[in-house]
Amino acid sequence: MNKTATYKEIFENINNITNTMHNVLPENTPAEKIHKLRLMHDLTQRQLASNLHISYSSICKYEQGHKICKDNLIKLCNYFNLDLHYFE
């Protein structure tokens, strides 16, 4: 172990690993896509819900695979600057 590594060097490596992990997450379903987007933007479920002005339980349900209502789907797309077809 390198005992002379700086705090910044250690945490840069951790950030790089985390970013790589996010890139390999599956995105086959809307639930997986929301989860991946949230993690890539370093948001908790509560933060995302607050930013979108929707309930925390809605985000939880969407990430579990529940159907996303049209209004909230539009909010998600606008927030992440995505086309509605991304979640199809």
UniProtKB/TrEMBL annotation:
SMART domains: HTH_XRE. InterPro entries: Cro/C1-type_HTH (IPR001387), Lambda_DNA-bd_dom_sf (IPR010982). It holds the Pfam family HTH_3. Residues 34-87 form the HTH cro/C1-type domain. Signal peptide: none annotated. This is Helix-turn-helix transcriptional regulator.
